[in-house]
Amino acid sequence: MKKSIILLYGIVAYFVFLIAFLYAIGFVGNIIVPKSIDSGAETTMYSSIFINVILLSVFALQHSIMARPKFKEWFNSIFSQAMERSTYILLSSLALILIYWQWKPITTIVWETENTILSSIITGIFFLGWLIVLLSTFMINHLELFGIAQIFDNLKNKQTPNPKFQTNYLYKLVRHPLMLGFLIAFWATPTMTVGHLLFTLITTIYIFVAVRYLEEKDLKKVIGKKYETYQKEVPMIIPFTKNKR
Fold it and tell me: What pTM, to 2 d.p., does this model score?
């Protein structure tokens, strides 16, 4: 019975993630969704900046704290290890949904592309960024990354093995192609508003700080010399850069 509940929990967490991920495309791109980054009731600029920074900080803290090995050890000492990744995915998705819900638009235009062809090219780059994000998850292990493998292994009384260190496809170009995809998607917009720029700047800073000073340190501890060699040979996020680290 307990294993069935964990299975259901993991499946629900995955579907909440899918909803949050798909909504993110519409939210950032101002397409289809009822509430986007540039829509909704506006307040004063300072109030909007304050609220939006708080929302992004909630996501950043949740994302960073729950990804640390010490938190995982604490979680696994209380709950089933099979639930750990699903819980991380669920709370990350809920933090995103909170952003979508409470985000305060600041619609002052920073730049705007009036040329139709150029606008279409930029929009194409925007969707390319999201495609890179999605493909990057399948270039390692999508089911394991989002907790699905763990809950099914638990149902079969199996222990999910530790993730294998892989450098497939885009991972030969940069160490974190998923983050590269996010950066492309966030920056590629024909119309950049102050609110969108605030979102993009904060998430860009967070991505570089979190990856460089948190995730990379954890990976070096877990993988060791092999990852240090990988760091020397492959750029972190920006392709073809000289500074590999």
Answer: 0.94
